[in-house]
Amino acid sequence: MEYWDLYTEDRKYTGETHIRGEELPDNRYHLVVHVWIRNRRGEYLISQRDASRPSFPLMWETVGGSVVKGENSLQGAVREVKEEVGLDLDASSGKLLFSKVRKTLNGRKFNDILDVWLFEYNGEVDLSASTTEEVAQTCWMTRKQIRDLFDRGLLVDSLSYFFDCPGLAG
Fold first, then answer.
1. How far is the C-alpha of 22 from the C-alpha of 52, rounded, in Å?
2. Which of 121, 108, 122, 118 is nearest to 161 (CA)?
3. Residue 105 above 90 pLDDT?
4. Which CATH number does the domain housing residue 63 bear?
5. pTM tops 0.90
6. 10 Å Cβ neighbour count for 147?
């Protein structure tokens, strides 16, 4: 079971714990991170979700997920990257680009606080170092290539902010 800390809409920690999969109480939110990893060529690391994933199988996305109980947003970002794509990122190099409260997503109650992070990384990616099997493959892509994925319906649609975020302009 995965446990989340709960927050108010204005990000005040409530001391309450939530079990993933259960409906979130009204007026309570959990932290979620999206982690964009950019190399010196201005390309971004994009991952393809494994075919066994219950939502968006084989779609492309950036690393992300829920922050678990006891973590802060940055710790959750670094952990998610290690779990999904096997990279050990230096937490001190992370830059928080923006935060957004999402009460609904695609018409469903969502109740999360999304933090979008950017890290610079110039090494190789070895999926065998990941600790989950959530990712089928990774690829370094330019903004144009990511736009093409989006236009073809192959990028998870909740990532559309990528194209308007100044911090992700390359």
1. 21
2. 118
3. no
4. 3.90.79.10
5. yes
6. 14
